[in-house]
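[job 4471] stage=fold_predict status=RUNNING
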Amino acid sequence: MNLNNINKIHFIGIGGVAMSAVAAIAKQRGYVISGSDGNSIYPPASVVLEKNEILFTAGYRKENIEDPDLVIISAGETPETNPEVAEVIERKIPYTSFPDLLYNLFYDVERVVVSGTHGKTTTSSLIAFALKAASNPSSFIIGGYVQDFKTNFELIDSQMVIIEGDEYYSSFSDKKPKFLHYHPQILLITNIDMDHFDYYRNIDDVMDKFRKLVKTVPPDGVIIACHDDKNVKRLLKDVDRKVIWYGLKGKNVNWKGEKIQQENDKMSFVANKLTTSKKYKITLSLSGEHNVLNTLASVALLDHLDCDLQKATEKLVEFNGPTRRFEIKGVANGVTIIDDYAHHPTAVMATLQAARSKYPESKIWAVFEPHTFSRTQATKAELAEAFEIANKVIITDIYPAREKASDFRITSQEIVDEIAKNHQNVAYIPRKKGVMDHIVANAKNGDVVIIMAVGDFNKIALELIDKL
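[job 4471] inference complete, writing structure tokens
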């Protein structure tokens, strides 16, 4: 793509977290930006757009397409369903996806891509935070709003950029995963799990896309990977690139997490570089073994880059992380309210394990809004077991996102019936008001309520603080 002849760029679907970040980066690079989305745009994207003075329209209309030189179309928009996309095609205006544009905005700097089914956003945020703490700040673009930076991106005068590499497809006209656009010099892989059931056929299909990603790493590039994940080990078994392994298990790792302890609101562990005598005691405000792994990944990267690890690890205790990742919204009448993005059974289990380690004596409420019919249908068996740690489980109506209920047979009641086979205290409460009323009436001092949702159902977290 030759951006030299581009002046005006219009973003269709600008309300996405990543889309808003790319739009803001493009504006800072000097392009004239406009955008549109559905009937509403909510934080964090709306905050980023307003902060960067980017005008956007709520509601898709062909009149929104004035005279752009280039149009960026988000993955969920098609010419059949979106009048703006249809207008772009009708008028033969050049268009592409945001990952394609993002690569072209950063083609001339070193690209560190953080990939994996789970943990990408937190790991990317940890890396950006640790680099800054080590006095080696980098540009970054992350699929979540990072509390420590009060943004989801940062563009600075740096020869490196941290990019969260999503495995979902790029656009209606480009069905390859977003991460295949980025061609990383350094690739980080947190884990590989079956997800995006409307796109991937099975785990072998997922593995195939990750193999293609690995092949985009140049011969002199580096892969930093989690040794604890069986699919990651299988992926990299015979790879001809340098691999730096991290993990909590076994001896065949470069960086190992040891002596994990949870004390009140802090978790500590030792990052041990087994090939040397380097050891670092790290204290975090995060909880859960998955966050030890996320931190180890960032430590392995900074070590590879010859950063000041002592300086970086000492500051990690101040790291708050991205919003909606075990984000404590407040305490009301002794009830702690937590907002979390978990929407896959693996993430639900990790979130609840972190909650139990942080609040060992508390009654834990898990309020879960299933995300997409395809994922809910495909993970019914895993969801039935994912809530074992919780004392009380509430399942709401399924959030359809881009899907139609009429295309699927799965219902929330079926999920409740499955969970009930293993859990005595589970209820189906379809709507937000009913959930609110139930929690307000039954939550007690010392309880922990975790809201797990992808869409704006999470607003219930702040509303609960007002009502409790």
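[job 4471] summary: The mean pLDDT is 93.
[job 4471] exit 0
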